[in-house]
Amino acid sequence: MRLAPMVLCSLFFVQSLLATDTAQKFSVHFRNLPAAAAVDSISKISGRPIHFDVRLFPPEWRVTLRAYGTVTELLHQLLAGKPYQVEEAGHDIYISLQPKKLFSLLVLNQRGERLADVTLHDADSNRRWKTNADGRWQAWLYHDTLRLRLSMVNHRADSITLPGTVVATLEESIDLQEEVECGYGKTNTRRSPGVAVVIRPEQIGQPYFTIADVLRLATGVLVNSKTDVRWGNSTIEIRGSRTIQPLSPGRRIDEPLVLIDNVPCLACTGPQSQLTSVVDPLGTGPGLHQLTFLNVDDVESITVLKDGLATAIYGARGANGVILINLRKTKGQRLRINAYLASSVVSAYRVPQTLHTTDYLLLRLEAIDGRIAINKGNTPDLFLDSTRYTNWPRKLYNNPAINHTAQLSASGGTETFSWLGSLNFRKEQYVYPTTVMDEWARFYTQLRYEPVSRSFSITALAAASLGSNASPAADLSPIAYALPHASGTVKDDSLSRSDDPLRLLKSRYHAATTYYLSHVQLNLPIGHLLEARVNVGLGYQGLREKAGYFSGFFTGDSPVAPQLVQAARQVRTWITEPQLHLQAHPGHLQLRAVLGVSYQQSRYRSDLLPNQPVADDAALHRQLVYPKPDTSWTQYKLLSTFARVHLAWKKQWQWEGSGRMDASSRFYGRQRPGWFYAVGGAWIPSDAPWWPKRLSKVSFARVRFSHGLTGSDQVADYAYMGQWSPSNAPYSYGAYPGWQASLPGNKLLTWAKTRKTEAGLSLEWRNRLLIDAGYYFHRSYHQVITAPLPAQSGFTIINYWNYGALVDNRGWDLSLQYKNDTSRRWKVRVGVNYTIPTNRLTTFPQLGRLSLAGNLIEGRPLSARKVYQATGIDSNGLYTVADLNGDGQVSEADKLAERDLEIKGYGTLQVQVVRGPWAFTLLVEGRRQPGYTAAHYTNRRLPPGMGDAAGFNNQPLSVLQRWPLQSPALYQRASALLSDAAQTAFNRQQASTASFTDQSYVCVRNLGLQYTVASKRLHRAGIQQLRLFVQGQNLLVWSPYRDGNPLLQEPFSQPVTRVYTFGVQVAFKQ
Amino acid sequence: MRLFTVLLLTGLLAMIACNKLTDVDEPPGRYTHPFRDNITANQVMLGIYEKNLLEQGLYFGHLSRFGGLQGGELALLTTQGDEADFQYWRLKAMNRHLSPCWTPAYTCIARCNGVLAELPDAPGVEVGVKKYLLGEARFWRALSYFYLVNLWDHVPMVTGTDIGANAQEQQSSPVDVNKLVVADLEAALDLLPTQHPGAVPDSLRRTRIELGAARALLARVHLYLGHYAEAAHYASLVIESGTYALAPLDSVFHYQSRETIFQLKPVLAIMNTAEGGNFLAFTGVHPNYELTAATLTSFVPGDGRLAQWTKTVRVGNQDRYQPFKYQLMKGQPRHEYSIVLRLAEQYLIRAEARVQLGDLAGAQTDITTVRRRAAPHDPVTAVTADSLLAALIRERQAELFTEWGHRYFDLKRWWQLPAGFLHSKASTWLMAQPGWAAYRMRWPIPQQELRKNLQLQQNEQY
């Protein structure tokens, strides 16, 4: 009650203020009135004289205003943005011209270099400017003073007041260099509790050809290539394999999510070649494109997200890690043109070696051992001209190929609009004797508009690629194993046509890839704290393929008509992501929050026209037409709501939490939504005031921890729906066919999930040496596996069923970065990263009931198998294995030894040395891994000495190390008979410990040297920079595995290829 | 802040509407939902028929083969292998022929369960069409359970459409399964038409389930269950319906035979009936099976069936008798369908039921009706119950040999009867089999099923 009089008093006071003249409010409404008349009428309404010079008001200046306020308020609104000032002198009001003032500024970095494109923001009027190329800015303004906030990428933002400052220094910040766009908003990789590895191809300083090559540089990213053909198939795996069952052969669910400027790219889950089985039964050859549609030069940065915290924001799709590819953004207003030309020579290195004719014949005779009648029917290979010899591997692989790349890019703009465009052509070949060609035309453009008021910005980018690939439509590696005395051209009477090894060249595979991506982003700042952002992305990927087999390709005595196989597939995706970003700095606290929705729709279409006979070769040429993808389609939708809060207190404490709800169309009803979350924290004691002086050489220290849950919906679309198929044997002729329920749907199918826990420690020594060690533990559950069903359910199998198996991946990620003082003449950067992964199938209660039972061992890695213990070669020259269970006989029960193919460790070493115009780079990749022995692969192809009507093959040189020629021998005695006792011994050997060996390697992936010419004469000609470079790839491989190619695991499929590249780059600047 | 609210609301809405927004269109082809209209609903039913005929199994030859072997009608010309285990009564759970009998029955049941669950509520299908399709589904389910329960006794009874629950269903008692069979058939009586609109053309006569088929199967089921009055009642309904008539011996197994109550039309292009394909051999190639002496002695002297329905093949220097009811071995022309139910069996069902009910004269007439067609010179003269039963046993053997395992099922049910003439006859025969033991009267549950459903119990002593 005591308060009441006070409240009343203050109300009275307010009332009395309102009653005074100056505070009296009026309502006005002008439409298209000359400004002078408007001021007059305000004067009339208020009854206060307003003094101004009519000549100051241009007659054409007309105003429209509808407002309510005091006289001064009304005048300010009327004159907003005009160079007038309003002064009150008692009752009278004076309007006069504001004095115009020149403000100017020069911005430098700490080394005194001028900084262009620094953003200057005047918070009062919300206007923005940028410094010019010389680091200067100047403007005439109607202000007395100006407070500007200066900001620039990778620099510490600063505020200054003008006039008073002439030269501003903007410190280059190591901290901010790590600022990357990731997971809806910027993250500081150095301070964040999450793990994000950033690679900037520009910083590598060498031309890289594929994204997969670049990804090798990231810690904990495993790139496996099955072929050395550059555009060939490779798989990317982040932190181990977590799925028991591959989705389909050659395609694992472990593929990470790839986002190109936030648009999901379908490199991994996108149009896969449908002709792989036809074209390339081993899956080793060309024909599959993986991220090759993207030009590495258009990539600004690649961020790899691995842990729970960083990936949880991608919820559903984050379980296998996320790769964010950010395309180049426009810079500055000046016109810049960049041209680039490079050519490479590709040659085979470590070409497999095979037996000479005499050795081959000896092998065969030894194998036949008088037990097969030697005649033209049984052993035609013995009747060939034994004096003839062709080195088929050399013939197949020793055909140096030449690659060319040309690129032209330009950028420029005006104050409000900037643009960037690039055009890239590439043509690649392989070392085969026939034309193998991969050609790409890639186009990329980016446009950005931001009005002077900076009230919003809109960025649009579009990338398009057209690719064409031509290669033989068959695996050519059998040519390397053709009989050493086969002629290849002369038709031998004793050999049927099937033994002309070069017939495999009589096939053609063509693929046309179309790729298109566009992305529009609208940024709309709302006040100082909030920003609304809307992304809309569109993606299209099409793959049209055809394979033609000309006459002479097929074996057999009667001629077979040429055949044609065609397929087409396309994926269309669109995605929209409205988001709201909040940024606030109350006191020592820094708050960043995002709330958003993401909605994605994809549509897949495909078509496959199986083998059709074609009249003749000419018709085949004519008919190599691509079909339209039409006959079947599927649809995929994903809706997500996500939120993330990032809190930093006094910079030394960082906390982050995120949550996401995903609903995927691949699940049914209540199984559809999946909830994912992550929490994490980082402590940076080196930023604390108490950080001891004696530790001052430790310039940075961080401890981080994170825990999160992510999911995977990488099952087939419509897996919850039962499948029906029409019968091919109709019950009622003439009527419609019957429908068979062919596969059951699983309405209970739900997200496979991975719980990720990580902890790490980073230490930096005097800003130069940064050591980072991290331990991760990922546990995957709800495994989706094809399950057998009891017949009483009506089906015998269900394709997707969640099982309670646990797969654990844990390991260490270690990285070391060194760079010397930037002021030194020699600039050295060294980066080392190494990952030690372990993989384990921890439990699988239902394992005994599944057909996988024979392939998996609980408590061991997924690739572990039970095998025999090999005991060498006995006195009969046969492989022997141990009777491990001691029951007196060798049987399946003796498979008690265990072997796996798990990679034990992998990493890279990257060195960059720059001195003046010279730059040297080195990239070494290493891997510790077990693998199959060469003998195992040889035996798998064809056991030495064997040969039947199906084919006679040469053998690798290592077959000379056989019993009884050598002791200890690598191979058992040669045998030509399948029913021989040797066959049993050989089968056991294939599944024994002797099939495993060390396939570790160290490979010089890249060695380059470049020279930059910068001279005044060039400058005058408008050439800012001229760079010459030379580079070699796969120059050396060290490995204890001598008989094959450890880089590709399967040693006899292809040799390693060495690539030498020469190039020139020219940059023009206005 | 307005935008914030809008976004928040959008987010909330998105969460609520997530199922709506992530609903996908059903692509054409394999995912298309059935029961949209009369045609698709019919296609699903035709799929059930076809599925049973696409590979050898319960509904395509296996019962005639393995029932014949186990019932002593057939003998293998080899003594080894999984097939011989039937002949010598030494079946094991690992036998690879068990699954093809078990699996198709349950596949058929699951499809029928699907029809029974979804079709009644399908808006696009006409009431009349629904009616006969539901009747067919009930019949197929009853027939499948009938064979399952008579082969294995203890089988899981699956009636729902939840795959997960079905996969873990335990075995039910034979009494419950039989109740379901009778209930399904009785329900089918009200649903099925006397002539199926889908089987009107001559080439499709009796290839779809009609009212007569349900009655005929019901007569058999009741006979097996010892409900003689009902068995006689339903058999009479079939016999007196006037729709069916005994055909001359040479055309009984012709696809246009008037005797047929329900037949399955072969669908595989390379094959006619499974019986024809299995029992006949190419000229010059040894057949796999021969008819046993027991079967051959069941024919009275001069029995037309011996001449018309069997065939001798010379193997080495010995004549072997082969079943020759189905005379086409493979491919075209297609004028033999696999007959599931035919009128002669109904006479014999009624005869057996009448003997058990004391109507000896009626029984004699029925047996005579069947006998007269094959051996008009040798009418049935028996008058006492036991002698009539002896004549009936002989007649069933001579008439129904190598058809759907009749002999095996007869032996089993007679052996299960209380002591009496039929029981002693069956026991005597069974005891004479080398590997026979009481527990072997039911088949073992296939081993792989026990592995996949841990709830299943193997039949005792296997």
Can you put this structure into words, describing what you see?
- The complex is a heterodimer of chains A (1070) and B (462).
- Chain A contains 15 helices and 53 strands.
- Chain A is mainly β.
- Among the domains of chain A are: 24-97, Phage tail protein beta-alpha-beta fold (3-Layer(bab) Sandwich), CATH 3.55.50.30; 101-172, Immunoglobulin-like (Sandwich), CATH 2.60.40.1120; 177-327, Ferric Hydroxamate Uptake Protein, Chain A, domain 1, CATH 2.170.130.
- In chain A, strand 18 (257-260) and strand 19 (263-265) form a beta hairpin.
- The longest helix of chain B is centred in the first third of the chain and has 26 residues, at 127-152.
- In chain B, strands 1-5 form a two-stranded antiparallel sheet.
- Chain B has 462 residues and is mainly α.
- The chains are: A mainly beta (1070), B mainly alpha (462).
Strand content of chain B: 5-15%
* CATH architectural arrangement of the domain at 177-327 in chain A: Beta Complex
Helical content of chain B, roughly? 40-55%
Number of domains of chain B: 1
Question: Might you state the CATH topology name of the domain at 177-327 in chain A?
Answer: Ferric Hydroxamate Uptake Protein, Chain A, domain 1
Oligomer: heterodimer
The dominant shape of chain B is globular
Q: Would you tell me which CATH topology of chain B applies?
A: Serine Threonine Protein Phosphatase 5, Tetratricopeptide repeat
Our count of helices of chain B gives 20
The beta-strand count of chain B equals 8
Assign an overall shape of chain A.
elongated
The major β-sheet of chain B equals:
2 strands, antiparallel
Biggest sheet strand order of chain B reads: 1-5
Q: What is the total tally of β strands of chain A?
A: 53
Mean of pLDDT of chain A: 81
Task: Please identify the top-level CATH class of the domain at 177-327 in chain A.
Answer: Mainly Beta
Give the biggest beta sheet of chain A: 22 strands, antiparallel, barrel
Q: End-to-end distance of chain B, in Å?
A: 76 Å
